[in-house]
């Protein structure tokens, strides 16, 4: 089903209070931050609205990149009504009237399920936003003022545009004590910049909002305009400054003649409290958006990015998007939508970047909720670093929900769940995998990393044991997930410079070395005995029996992770798992070592 309309739709807003705020360029922090010019910026918050789907405050701001606006800008230049100073050669290039053609369309796409949403989000030749192009998201300081103003009224101005589609999953198999039952998510409207020469998505539901003109694309399309690459920046300068009501960039004709859009560069890092230094955030999607002109880059192994931006900008606004560009995973918030998290980074007071590249230096992200960044580090490491543990290869993407709240029971830190589908032939499939991480008693960032890797271990187990995961003994599920979180968590920390201080260190909170067969009730939770160190004991060099006779004997070490994954992920009962472990006698351990280790686990899991 398709809908093709061409319109500019006004949005009805309730009357709002008029408020102006003054901001100064915020400090970026970190080690040796680059000194930046401070510039006072004032913006009216009249008309600010709350968009509950993206959990953000927004204000109207014209999209400078409509074809209509660029045509007006060209006409201003050709009739000498521009405020720009042009030399004779440049004026001659605008001497005759020209009719510009669109390079793109601004579409609103209404995905009817997550498969359609992911399909659009992972297209290589389109750009996707989650707020309309003629609005701009407010930074934290301004959003706080807008929210405070809303509290003085009976109700906040709420953005009315909303997709008619939702998706409901019947989650019936939560691990780690998580809740089960149906969950309904609101699907978003996708605001998409779609190439004019790309066939329109006739199998999706969409509308065409307006035609778009992007100079970077026009430079490559001879049919769009006869303007050359050195003239397009002049036109863009005119269009952006006119639309935003600001003075055009002050650039000398000599410089402008050879100028292209400037680059905003920087390095994204986060402080790690274990290695006590900043560490890079690689493979993070960075996006700069001014109306429908969006540019993206992926940070490299050092966290470095480079974005080409418009010639007129006194605020560098870019977003960190927590979604895998390959469509393997995404991180959402707890507000029951399927939109990936985007964290806006705002830096005020820069000269127009057309004069050359502007370096933001080392940007240390220090969010209110650090949990998001720790989850990202763990997930990114799992998907992008070679490991001898299995990697999630399911065609269906993995959703990770970062919840700011505490679990209502007060004890669950995270859980993995999925919905079940039984085919007419009786084949059981686990669908729509979801990991939810609560902001519960996270004293250390490294424990967040251990917990998310633990839940990814469940997702791997479920994927490798299709149709039988739900009936697998919880002792096997939780012991394997604990091993997964411990093994990959330590590998990650070693990769950023951590040196293991002792064999009994527990940097991930996943070693479970305090386990005994009698611990079936602890801190309000039953059956904590499921969380054993069984698979950790088969690999690590630590023998906990040396520190207490009530712990299992553990003389075994260096069993391969692949062998452990085979024994755990292809067993439903403890008897099946034990048989697989016995098959490795003579390879990784002798029979006496195996019987010593397995005795306590036999007593617990044998029922």
Explain what this protein looks like in three dimensions.
This protein is of the alpha+beta class and 607 residues long. The protein is built from 14 helices and 25 strands. It has helices spanning 67-78, 88-92, 114-121, 140-151, 215-218, 232-244, 253-257, 371-384, 445-464, 474-495, 534-537, 561-569, 574-582, 591-605, and strands spanning 20-23, 41-44, 49-51, 56-60, 104-109, 127-129, 135-137, 166-171, 181-186, 190-195, 206-212, 263-272, 277-280, 285-290, 293-298, 304-308, 315-321, 329-333, 342-348, 358-365, 398-403, 414-422, 428-438, 521-522, 525-526. The chain has a 4-stranded antiparallel sheet with strand order 6-10-5-11, covered by helices on one side. Strands 12, 13, 16 and 20 form a 4-stranded mixed sheet that branches. The chain has a 4-stranded antiparallel sheet with strand order 15-14-17-19, with no helix packed on it. β24 and β25 (525-526) form a beta hairpin. It is elongated and about 95 Å long.
Q: What is the topology?
A:
Layout: E1 20-23, E2 41-44, E3 49-51, E4 56-60, H1 67-78, H2 88-92, E5 104-109, H3 114-121, E6 127-129, E7 135-137, H4 140-151, E8 166-171, E9 181-186, E10 190-195, E11 206-212, H5 215-218, H6 232-244, H7 253-257, E12 263-272, E13 277-280, E14 285-290, E15 293-298, E16 304-308, E17 315-321, E18 329-333, E19 342-348, E20 358-365, H8 371-384, E21 398-403, E22 414-422, E23 428-438, H9 445-464, H10 474-495, E24 521-522, E25 525-526, H11 534-537, H12 561-569, H13 574-582, H14 591-605
Parallel strand pairs: 12-20, 18-21, 21-23
Antiparallel strand pairs: 1-2, 3-4, 4-7, 5-10, 5-11, 6-10, 8-9, 12-13, 12-16, 14-15, 14-17, 17-19, 22-23, 24-25
Helix pairs in contact: 1-6, 8-9, 9-10, 12-13
